[in-house]
Each structure stands twice: as C-alpha cells, then as structure tokens.
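Attaching the record inline, Q. Sequence:
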Amino acid sequence: MTTSGSVKEQTKAETQKETRRIKRVVAVMSGKGGVGKSTVSALLAVTLARLGNKVGILDADITGPSIPKLFGLSAKPEVHPDGIMPVKTQTDIEVISINLLLSDDTAATIWRGPLISKAIVQFWNDVVWGELDYLIIDLPPGTSDAALTTMQQIPVNAVVMVTTPQALAGMIVRKAMNMAEQLKIPVLGIVENMAFFPDPASGKPLELFGPRRAKELADEFEVPFLAQLPIDPQIAVLCDAGEIEQYQSEAVSQFGTAVVERLAAMP
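Structure, as predicted:
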C-alpha cells in the first residue's frame, strides 16, 4: 500500500529531470472565465521572449483551449521516441495544447475531471520541452480538479492572478487566492485586465466595467499589484488574426518586467 507521502515523493522525483531543463514554472490563474486569462498568459510569454528568454506555454485549459488560436498555430506536434515535440510560434515560443492534437479544432473535449487532470500531467511529463527559462501554464478558470492537479503534480514556482474591475470577478478571484495560499504556492501578484479604456478624444481612462479594485485586493492579500492592462481594440484584432506576437505596449512590457523581477527575488 502506498502512502500519500510516498506518492508525493515519487511525483517530485519524476519531475526532477524536467525541472533541470525548465528554470521557472509560472501558472496564470483566474477565479472565473471571461477575464482574459489566456490573453494575459500569451502576452506574458511574448514579453518574456522579447527580453531574450526561452519560453514555453502549456495550455492546461483542456475544455476551452485558445492559445493556438492566439498564436495562429495549426501544425500538429511531431511524436518522437522521446515524446511529443511542442509546436513553435513565429518567435520560437514552445506550445502544447489539446487543440493541436485534435483532428478537428472545433470538436468539443467532453471529458470528466480525472481524464482532464491526466492530460495536463502528460503535457508536463511526455512533452519534450527544450531548455526553457520560463514555462507559462494557462490554467482553466476557477478552482477545479484541473487547477488542483496542476499545482500538486507540477512544480509550479508561482502564480499570477488575473481579474477584472467587476465586483463579481474580484469576489471569485479571492477563492483562487485562498487556494494558492492553502497549497503554499507563492502568488507573484495580481493583474487587472480590461481595467479601463483610454478615451480617444481626451486620453482619460474610462472605467467601462466599474471602478478599479485590484489594487485593494492586492493590499488585502499582501501581494504585489503587477499591472493594469487597458482595453485595447488592437489586441482583439491581433488575437483573431493569430498574430498576438506583434502586439506591443508599455503596460504589457512593464508587466513582463515586473514578473521577471519578482521571480528573481524569490528563493
């Protein structure tokens, strides 16, 4: 009979080889869907790559994968004796996603929790990741089995929380914050996405989704407030075209730099 303690030790032992190849694993999490978590994951990866880092993205949102669409990826991963090779983007970001393995990328992935969790762990264990400075994990929204499995069986170094100004989003992201705290995974900080829309005439920020609350949330949990990302129609255009790597903004650049600095300060 195997004890839970020995199972954890075995899991950690199995991941030692990979952790030598991947320096930092950062999970991007949100309390609910619709806050732009996958877009933030993609923008973070692009920014880190621009800073000269080798970056990968593990799309753990099995039932709602969108990373391939954001990067315009359609090529199928090659299967080698050593494992599955991730697909590379135009800027050499390594990506694995369930949508890249399906014959029809519009097919619904109607899987139960245990199968979803197994797929995420296989993406970690069976994909031949290169020598990466950062692996970004785009988690599914909420605090489901999939998020729990990822945090328990993959050596996640830290979590970035994504929210929006709505009170509902702020309320639910507290659950995700509490989950990370219970699992003893450091929260790098909070990103408030769609925080405002710059008025074309005056340049003043219009708070379309209500007053910005993420700074208060960060203060409440005593974690850094990493960034406020505006509503930018250009992001939507580039995402739809699969050209997110072309997007640049000062706010996103500062966000990426803040993540690097926070990770560097960690033990």
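Residues 1-10 have pLDDT under 50 and may be disordered. The radius of gyration is 18 Å.

More tomorrow.
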